[in-house]
Amino acid sequence: MVKFLDLKYQYGTIKEEVDAAIKNVIENSAFIGGAEIKNLERDFASYQNAKHCIAVANGTDAIEIAIEALELPPNSEIIVPANSFISSSEAVTRSGHRVVFCDCNPENYTIDLDSLKKTITNKTKAIIAVHLYGHPCNMEELMEISEEKDLKIIEDCAQAHGAEFKGKRIGAIGHIGTFSFYPGKNLGAYGDAGAIVTNDDELAKKSRMIANHGRIEKYNHIFEGRNSRLDNLQAAVLNVKLKHIEKWTEQRIAIADYYVKELKDVAQIQLPKRESWARQVYHLFVIRVDDRDDLKNYLKENDIGSGIHYPIALPKLQAYKYLGQENDNFCAHKYDTEVLSLPIGEHITLNDAERVVMVLKEYFSPK
Ligand SMILES: *Cc1c(COP(=O)(O)O)cnc(C)c1O
Q1: Distance from the alpha carbon of residue 270 to the mean position of ligand 1, in angstroms
Q2: Could you tell me which of 110, 155, 182, 337 has the fewest CB atoms within 10 Å of its CB?
Q3: Is residue 59 lining ligand 1, measured as CB closer than 6 Å?
Q4: Could you report how far apart the first and last alpha carbons of the chain are, in Å?
């Protein structure tokens, strides 16, 4: 069986370290705040080449808090790519703003810059740059648009720990960046967890206060915030895993390179394009095929797991019917029936990858 995701396998490879770290937190009984959180914030900021990191409860909260910290005028338009997880747009509405969708790039699937430019109005105040599937957005172009139109760039890095644009780690290239440490992400906790990164001192301070009841010290609340703290147990797990993430990421890249090398001549498969300036960290390896559901079944019959990211483009969801964008001329509206995520991760051996390739070639060979 080639599993799509195998967290139990990963645990087996780091069991002693993780068990010791968890035991240590429980023995010290410091569950909120404390050393593990401080170390995580320091080391993850350093890993992402950001000045500040604020650990929060999950990746969705991270986006909401980042938007709130920007203090945009109420009901601002914020542009979100049509192909993403709902958190990217949900956080916009939840923080009192208006979602406007634009298309995704037909080759690397991140935000499409032409579509984005056409979508900007004088009410647009920010852009959610989702580094989808671990492929960085074109940050140079985005920062140019940001300066020209006075827009804030929020990087949704939930799928892109360690990804780089032109050799620079993503996250703090824009004004503020957000991460998810959901268990299945490239860096995952043993429960929900997330983080905000930024190089801006004020945004960092504001975000930290919002995530902790608007306070600067125990009972001194400057404004109403919320409770979105990360706990020490999750931080302890993340601190262990952070030591392994580079190795795991290199393994993901090696599997992706192998898939590309072996599948490039299969005419029926549209492979993802990695731009020359990208370090893509392959949270997902997404191909496109005509009869996606049939292929997915065939893989399943051959004991190969796969995923769909995402089966319904965001503007077509019931939740966004009110926007009336479901018939916009987006390639994202067509691709949702074609995308298929192949197994990738540190649990995939070269043997596994070989079998995936073999079964795919078998499926597409003339019968
Ligand atoms: C996972 C994910 C999120 C949300 O993270 P949670 O920690 O599950 O709240 C946000 N954006 C994208 C693109 C994601 O993949």
Answers
A1: 25
A2: 337
A3: yes
A4: 25
